[in-house]
Amino acid sequence: MENNVTKTKAWKKLALHYRFFKKTEMKDLFALDARRGSRYAVSLGSLYLDYSKNRFNEKTMQHLLELADEVHLKEKIEAMFAGEKINRTENRAVLHTALRNRASTPVYVDGRDVMPEINAVLAKMKKFTDAVRYGEFKGETGKKLTTIVNIGIGGSDLGPVMATAALKEYWAKDVQCHFISNIDGSACDDVLSKIDPETTLFVIVSKTFTTIETLTNARTCRKWLIDALGEFAVAKHFVAVSTNAAEVAKFGINTDNMFEFWDFVGGRYSMWSAVGLSIALAIGMENFEKMLDGAYEMDNHFRSAPFAENIPVILGLLGVWYDNFFNFHSYGVVPYDQDLRYLPAYLQQLDMESNGKSVNLNNKFVKHATGPVLFGGAGTDVQHSFFQLLHQGTQVVPLDLIVPAISHNEIGEHHEILVANALAQGEALMRGKTVGEAAAELAKSGKSVTDVSRLKRYKSFAGNRPTNTIVIKKLDPYALGMLVAMYEHKVFVEGAIWNIDSFDQMGVELGKQMALSILPELQGHASGLHDSSTRRLIELVKKLRK
Ligand code: G6Q
To answer: Which one of 67, 78, 432, 458 is CB 3.0 to 4.6 Å from 10, fit for a cystine?
Structure first.
């Protein structure tokens, strides 16, 4: 197998094709092919992907599909599902798909079928969430626990934050959810100042149970609870989600109240496991399982659909096409749904932590771009901020527009206006407006000849800016499951083509290490060797804090 993707035949064909194709305008492709909009669309259940507003033609897709074959994408997908240790730097299997393997067909890691353990944890989650939601598992003073505080960071936070917000309409009537992730004391203070210890359940989520932010926050919350309700209250008000039972016990949480997950689940891929406990407490286990069902449908599609009709594969191939050939190194995600406002932050970790790599699986520095910079925010809000650059800036940023057809809050015309905006953005970014068109419009609006000539360029839009439009019927647990699994697999496809390890995150280590050495210096117990800037900054902060 060719390990440097740039040396593959398909890559070379794509490079050549790019030279001829790069200036092609999408609006011309639409004019030439009246069926482009239906030709380049795929649906899976009620999820519909329109990828026609991308800069490609049939030949491009043909070469991209050849690339997928040449890098043995099919085999790589199968290896992931089968529990092979595809996280090679950490020698681990990557089995978030097993967490939602609803058929419970055996999945083996080191000869052991992991499905019974996964199902046992799901059953334990159901028992516990039911007990809390029906008021059988009560707080120390006998009150129902209705305030859930998830304490975790990164992969132990972003999934629960994103999914609970996305599924707000499914929350039990009396539940409130809060999240503490940042080590900044204000994060604890913001939450603790609002809640009542008697009705609060803290869910401490940490795969390793050694993460300084999470443990510091958890200790602060434990002290707050003990000050209010006494030492014994901890057993009734704290549960843990972790792979590390010893550390959980050391912290003082009864391991009966610990929900296990495994090292074959990466943090950013973990919301389908007990890491999603806060989600399940908010929406109920039945709804949580519907989210797993949705992801499972996407998994089956990803595993079995021919690549030319395979949603994550198509998205991943286009991602590579833009990143490596057009040199579009950023990527925007804009959900037109208020409840999906945290999806871009979630995907930012998923994509950038997975594919922000420079060394390939053959231990060689790569010679091509890898993961793009991902950002985004909820539409229409972001139309009033960064969309200016998307329309008229000098960089092209491929975008995903996510549009639920039905709102949970159909009030007057709100939703139709929202959808109209989403669709208009896709069309406007594709079509643009030539200087001539801008001039004609200005003239028609009664502007003087001088004003027309003064303004026409400012009012023009280059267009030819790509978007995918992803329509779902309604934002329910099932659709959310599909959507998130779709992005997980898209990231997988890109990582597989680049031949990188999408499942480690060694890049977060260096900063952590340095923080540990600077801390004693800030506290005045040590002095270290630093560059002149860092040394001065340490001294300045010490002085200001005196
Ligand atoms: C995710 C990363 C990272 C991790 C956090 C929290 O894939 O590994 O974001 O989730 O650093 O780690 P713990 O769950 O171990 O506290």
So the answer is: 67
**Which of 365, 342, 367, 369 is CA-nearest to residue 355?**
369
Q: Which residues in the chain show pLDDT less than 70? A: 1-2
* pLDDT score at 167: 98
Please indicate, yes or no, if residue 294 is contained in any of the structural domains.
no
Is 427 among the residues known to form the active site?
Answer: no
Q: Give the pLDDT of residue 526.
A: 83
> For residues 225 and 239, what is the distance between their CA atoms, to the nearest angstrom?
13
Q: Is 144 left (phi over 0), alpha (psi -120 to 50) or beta?
A: beta
- For 477, the domain range is 5-70+305-431+466-504
User: Which atom of ligand 1 is least distant from the CA of 214?
Assistant: 16
For a substitution probing ligand 1, which of 243, 261, 505 has the most ligand atoms within 8 Å of its CB? Answer: 505
Query: Are residues 342 and 267 located together in one domain of the fold?
Result: no
Q: Is 353 a catalytic residue?
A: yes
Tell if the pTM clears 0.90, that is, is over it: yes
Report phi then psi at 72, rounded to 5: 60, 45
Q: Which residues line ligand 1 (CB under 6 A)?
A: 153-156, 206-208, 211, 214, 266-268, 353, 505
